[in-house]
Amino acid sequence: MDNDVRTMLLDQATRLLEAEVDQSRLKTLLEAPGSFDRALWEKAVELGWPAIAIPELGGGLGLDLESLTPLLQELGQRTVSLPLVSGYVTAMALLDNGVAADVVAALASGEAIAALAFGEAGDCGLMPAAKFANGKITGAKAPAAFAAVADHALVTALDGDTPGLYLVALGGAGVERDVLEVIDNARAAAGLRLAGAPATPVVTGWAAVLRTAGIAATLTAFEQVGGSERCLKISVEYAKERKVFGQPIGAFQAIKHKLADMYQEVEIGRGCAIDALESLVAGQSDFLSLACTARLGAGASYDFCARECIQTHGGIGVTWEAEPQHHYRRARSLALELGGAPFWRDLLVDGQRVLETV
Amino acid sequence: MTDTMTKPVESLSEYVDRARAWLAALEPRFGAEARKGLSVEQDLALAREYQTLKSEAGYACITLPREIGGGGGTELHKILFTQEESKYDYPTVYFGVSLGMPVPMMLRYADQETIQRLIPPSIRGELIWAQLFSEPAAGSDLAALRTRAVRDGDGWRIDGQKLWTSWAQFADYAIGVFRTDPTVAKHAGLTFFWLDMKSPGITVKEVRKLAGKTSEINEVFFDNVYVPDSQRMGEVGAGFRVAIETLMIERYSVTDENMGGPSLYDVAKFAANARINGRPALDDGQVRHALADALVERQGLRSIHRRALNAMAAGEEPGPEGSIRKLRLARRRQIIAELSLDLLGAQGIALDPEVSRAQDAAWSWIEIPGGRIAGGTDEILRNTIAEKVLGLPQDYRPDKKVPFNQIG
Ligand SMILES: Cc1cc2nc3c(=O)[nH]c(=O)nc-3n(C[C@H](O)[C@H](O)[C@H](O)COP(=O)(O)OP(=O)(O)OC[C@H]3O[C@@H](n4cnc5c(N)ncnc54)[C@H](O)[C@@H]3O)c2cc1C
After folding, report:
1. Chain A CB within 8 Å of residue B11 CB
2. Which residues of chain A are within 8 Å of residue B240 when distances are taken between CB atoms?
């Protein structure tokens, strides 16, 4: 049953994206900061994508996460950027903690868009410096994907010394968005300046923050796997087609080995993403460790594949017109948005956790 | 005009002190702040002013004679000056190709009259030269180029297309290699010329780059462009050899050790302020490891460089180890920029349009892929080390001996 639904969803997605998204549309989005493909998002909403994995009691379709991840992978392949991960993660955090049912419903229906504003300048990790007190948050958040267009943000802040997650209405008082030029303008990114912005507490505790970030990382890993797959695919195609010294460049071992390395990276990334998802779905206690491996594995894979995809293309690879630039930008953006790799590495091998994992 | 280069004795440390003072005084006029927000045309105009001052002070083309606007100094002076200059973000990029390869090649091949007429203004930055080698189907495999030059009276007519020509949009002159005989093997049928980029029949089209508001790369189209035979450099059919001679200058030229990106000093300073989950990044093993790797490599490359200079000073040929420089530096800049972004975390995605790659990790990162391709790709440079330095057998080259017009 679920399998049929999955196939149908993916078919629909492929058809929509095939019809709507081409290189020139993607390039237009890169031109200006804070770009968002509103028209595509509206079509995705019509097809019910925001609702897929949100439980029925939250107004969603109540399908399993395995119905959402193939779609994320497809978006990743095409470097299409839609707020599906941020919407799902925010909705689940609210739902799990019995907060703001109206917002959950609006996220499920696609009426509302959410952003995950976890990072801050000054630390590559996710421990916030922003302060929550008397129902309000004050602090600055690093540019977060979709914050330029989102209605709500799930924000990290400290209440005293305790980090937690808070829901902030971005159209409300005390919120200023800094829509600035970023590596990948198609991410609709904006920094947030919160000066006494009204905030609804969602959950407190570092463990809860990390779990939510881990869920976001796990789902994002599928976008990263999709992106890596695409880099490998177009690199292999180009290597067969481009002739140099009387042979296709794929005949040279330097290129062969490069592509074989990409393949290994893709499969390691995919393996990590699949296992983290399984652990999440099964409610296993090792989830955070596996979320770290998904984050690091899929992130490194996409960075590597995007970089070497350019290299395989030679001069064409560094042009605006060619496809590799979209991946080079997207790979780095996804690798940074939820905190830098040094933070996640640290988390993975931190004290007890590494012993449990190993 | 200060012409202290001709003073009988100036120690190297005095030379460096003088260069430092000279450079520092120009910062308000040519530094990053002064260049902020300039259009390319404005920046180029500023670059020309700076280049003229350099030429007058003996800091332009330091190893070339004073009479033509050079510095009359040694390779060592050049390195020392370049090291000091790279601490600033002065506008030098437009002359990188021009003074790097075409000007030295003209000095080797052109007649005295031409040299006197064209080279001093080139060193002052008034004239810019481009290098017309690569084509759509000929990059790594330069000898596969197709742009034809056909005899026409006492000259030649050129038809075809070049690609990736750096700064062609501003170029007054160019050196280039063209196919003069398609009936012989691909390497044998090429001839080298210099030409006026303003000749009738030349069209330049800018190719937009992956990132950045300016692009140096261009397509150059030739439609029945006339070039006098007097502008031929080397024998008819010897073009490939002359091209390789040019590329040798390119591959062994003094590249600044940061490849245009932030210096390791700046990276370390940045890391000293960065934090990983509340801890100083410099206390972190992975960061220490990455910086240590970069320092080790830099030391090795500095030593190679210094020994090459000593060899040259003694009139000897420097060792082949200089050929690893560009390969290592380009990839290192990418690794270091990626690390810096990782340490910025979520904040790292910002790409401030007003800062340059010399100051900013994100710009350094987004602009470096071209560095691993231009002037020989990483893969080609490794092949060259393997075949030319280590003497390993050459790759299989099925089209090497086939007449060019019979290659499928
Ligand atoms: C920013 C920039 C500026 C440039 N400026 C100039 C300029 O001013 N003038 C000019 O003439 N050219 C210029 N170039 C062109 C440059 O020299 C070529 O791009 C380069 O030589 C690679 O050629 P290609 O782009 O055709 O790639 P290809 O040669 O098609 O290479 C594609 C891929 O195949 C690999 N490959 C090719 N042959 C082999 C082999 N034998 N073994 C293993 N791998 C191989 C390459 O490493 C690369 O990964 C510039 C390029 C760039 C990016």
Report:
1. no
2. none
* Closest residue to A318, CB basis, from B209, B275, B342: B209
Instruction: State if residue B98 touches ligand 1 by the CB under 6 angstroms criterion.
Output: no
B150 and B65 co-located in one domain: no
List all residues of chain B from 159 to 178 with a beta carbon under 8 Å from chain A: 163-164
Q: Which CATH superfamily is domain A2-109 in?
A: Acyl-CoA dehydrogenase/oxidase, N-terminal domain (1.10.540.10)
Would you say the CB of residue A242 lies under 6 angstroms from ligand 1?
yes
Ligand 1 proximity of A43 Cβ (cutoff 6 Å) = no
Find the CB nearest A336 among B137, B163, B345: B345
Are B261 and B345 in a shared domain?
yes
Per-residue pLDDT of chain B (408 residues; tens, 9 = 90+): 445 555 567 888 999 999 999 999 999 999 989 998 899 999 999 999 999 999 999 999 999 999 999 999 988 888 889 889 988 889 999 999 999 999 999 999 999 999 999 999 999 999 999 999 999 999 999 999 999 999 999 999 999 999 999 999 999 999 999 999 999 999 999 999 999 999 999 999 999 999 987 889 999 999 999 999 999 999 999 999 999 999 887 666 656 888 889 999 999 999 999 999 999 999 999 999 999 999 999 999 989 988 887 887 788 887 888 889 999 999 999 999 999 999 999 999 999 988 877 789 999 999 999 999 998 999 999 999 999 999 999 988 999 999 999 987
Residue B407 lies in a domain: no
Residues of chain A with CATH 2.40.110.10: 114-204
pLDDT at B222: 98
Fold of A208-357: Butyryl-CoA Dehydrogenase, subunit A; domain 3 (1.20.140)
CATH number of A114-204: 2.40.110.10
Q: Ligand 1 pocket: which of B97, B134, B169, B215 to mutate (most atoms <8 Å of CB)?
A: B134
The burial class, CB within 10 Å (0-12 / 13-18 / 19+), for A110 is buried
* Band of residue A355 on the pLDDT scale cut at 50, 70, 90: low
- B260 with B384, same domain: the answer is yes
CA of B141 to the centre of ligand 1 (A): 8
Q: Whose CA is nearest to atom 44 of ligand 1?
A: B379
Quick: pLDDT tens for A128-183: 999 999 999 999 999 999 999 999 999 999 999 999 999 999 999 999 999 999 99
Q: Where in chain A is the domain with CATH 1.20.140.10?
A: 208-357
Which residue in the set A119, A142, A321 is minimally distant from B208, CB to CB?
A321
Task: Flag if B349 and A332 touch (Cβ within 8 Å).
Answer: yes
Q: Let me know whether B224 and B273 are in one domain.
A: no
Give the range of the structural domain holding residue B61, as residue numbers without chain letter.
12-91
Whether chain A has a CB inside 8 Å of the CB on B205: the answer is no
CATH 1.10.540.10 domain extents, chain A: 2-109
